[in-house]
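Something for you to look into today, if you have time. Just paste the record in under my message, thanks.
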Amino acid sequence: MSTLKIKAIAAQDEDAFLAMTQSSREFHHPWIKAPLTREEFQNFYQRYQADNQKCYLVLQDQQIVGVFNI
């Protein structure tokens, strides 16, 4: 049975996050420009450290399957 989990993004998620965004790039184009490089991830991550912006990862069996930002 698969388990879904929601967690706040962390700096340690960089490699898994980039692998996910790179593999889904064609699916999201042209609607979303997700971070594809380490520099883009760092900028993205820093933006969501503000008190008024948050980023959450949706994990299924410890794999990132979704992202949502508030």
Observations:
- The helical segments are 14-23, 25-28, 38-47.
- The radius of gyration is 12 Å.
- Residues 14-23 form the longest helix (10 residues).
- The chain has a mean pLDDT of 94.
